[in-house]
Design a protein that fits this description.
With 324 residues, the protein is of the alpha+beta class. It folds into two domains: 2-80; 104-321, BirA Bifunctional Protein, domain 2, CATH 3.30.930. 40% of the residues lie in helices and 21% in strands. The protein has helices spanning 2-15, 19-30, 35-42, 48-80, 104-118, 132-135, 169-177, 218-233, 275-280, 297-305, 318-321; strands spanning 122-123, 129-131, 155-156, 161-163, 182-191, 203-213, 237-244, 249-259, 265-273, 289-296. The strands form two sheets. Strands 1-5-6-10-9-8-7 form a seven-stranded mixed sheet. A hairpin with a 5-residue loop joins β8 and β9 (265-273). α1 packs parallel to α4, α2 (19-30) runs antiparallel to α4 and α5 packs across α10. It is rod-shaped. Bound molecules: adenosine-5'-[phenylalaninyl-phosphate]. The site of adenosine-5'-[phenylalaninyl-phosphate] has 22 residues, from β6, β8, β9, β10 and α10. Adenosine-5'-[phenylalaninyl-phosphate] is lined by residues 166, 168, 192, 194, 200-201, 204, 206, 246, 249, 252, 268-271, 292-294, 296, 298-299, 310.
């Protein structure tokens, strides 16, 4: 009797053409008043021995019908949504997506920002296309001053504009709008019209630093920059200041860095902000003092990743870029 029930159910499932009729078959056999459900319910009236054999068989059939119903349900759904008919090998290995990553300069820039931010500096920005005024005049380099030759400049013809030769113009732009005390760094791209070599490119990057207050000293500069290099290289470093000339600082120095077991390396220009710069941005020069510096970001990256030619950084050679 149970076997007949099973045959009947299977035949009806086969015939069901949509989900509705399949649902009807389910109710017919497995619903609350379904035929098989009733059989299962009546088991309690049988003798213990009969109950054991019949019960086992009934439950087995129930499972079978459920399985066939389920399969048929998927089959109906598949045809309904017209899934692609072709064969799909779900065990085939996937095609790996090439993974993008950050350029070494971006990595170094972010790290530099993080370290200076931890010392209370904010990140400021300025335009790469700059005016004569901010790139030079406001920095105590008047027109026809011989110091302009320190920076070989790309001029934008007829526009009276130039591509900034350093990030220092942002010092003046920032101080015009903000009063001391202030601490900023300015990472950004710079341009120089000069012959390239292993350590010089036409386009490169600097990080400007500026800290101004009522009593900011050269000793503060040394402390800040020593802490920076310590964190950047994860090791103790020695700092050496050598006198140098930049029109917008007085005194000015060149900064050398030495790591254990390495040679002294010239890495940045720096100095105490020149009173003329304070005057130009409208500060009372006697009230404030501060330091400024400009680090070559590309140079930091070259040391960090042992890249021996700056031009490699921007030739988009994947053999280099894939290493980061
Ligand atoms: C300056 O540009 C000054 N503005 C730095 C400064 C800021 C001094 C604030 C005082 C106060 P200099 O021309 O030396 O200085 O450049 C600074 C750094 O930029 C260099 O040490 C070097 O690391 C990097 N640099 C300069 N020219 C190039 C270039 N063509 N290619 C790659 N890096 C360069």
């Amino acid at each position: 009797m149970l076997k007949q029930l099973k045959q009947k159910a299977i035949a009806e499932i086969k015939q069901a053409g949509d989900l509705n009729s399949l649902e009807k078959v389910f109710r017919q056999y497995l619903g609350r008043k379904g035929e098989l459900t009733q059989v299962l319910r009546s088991l309690k009236d049988l003798s213990a021995k009969e109950r054991a054999t019949q019960g086992k068989l009934a439950n087995q059939i129930k499972k079978e019908i459920e399985n066939i119903l389920e399969q048929k349900k998927y089959k109906i759904r598949d045809t309904k949504y017209e899934l692609p008919k072709e064969w799909l090998d779900v065990t085939a290995p996937g095609v790996p997506m090439p993974q993008g990553h950050l350029h070494p300069i971006t990595l170094v820039q972010r790290q530099v920002e993080e370290i200076f931010q931890s010392m209370g500096f904010t990140v400021a920005n300025g335009p790469e296309v700059e005016t004569d005024y901010y790139n030079f005049d406001a920095l105590n380099v008047p027109k026809n001053h011989p110091a302009r030759d320190l920076w070989d400049t790309f001029w934008l013809k007829d526009l009276d504009l130039l591509l900034r030769t350093h990030t220092s113009p942002v010092q003046a732009r920032y101080m015009e709008k903000n009063n001391p005390p202030l601490r900023i760094i300015v990472p950004g791209r710079c341009y120089r019209h000069e012959a390239t070599d292993a350590s010089h490119d036409v386009i490169f990057h600097q990080v400007e630093g500026l800290m101004v207050g009522s009593d900011v000293s050269a000793a503060n500069f040394k402390g800040v920059i020593e802490e920076f290099f310590k964190q950047f290289y994860h090791t103790d470093v020695k700092i050496r200041l050598r006198p140098s000339y930049f029109p917008f600082v007085e005194p000015g120095f060149e900064v050398d860095v030495k790591r254990k077991g390495k040679n002294w390396l010239e890495i940045m220009g720096a100095g105490m902000v020149h009173p003329n710069v304070f005057k130009t941005v409208g500060y009372k020069a006697n009230n404030y003092q501060g330091f400024a510096f400009g680090i070559g970001l590309d140079r930091l990256a070259m040391i960090k990743y042992q890249i021996d030619d700056i031009r490699l950084l921007f030739t988009n050679d994947l053999r280099l870029l894939k290493q980061f």
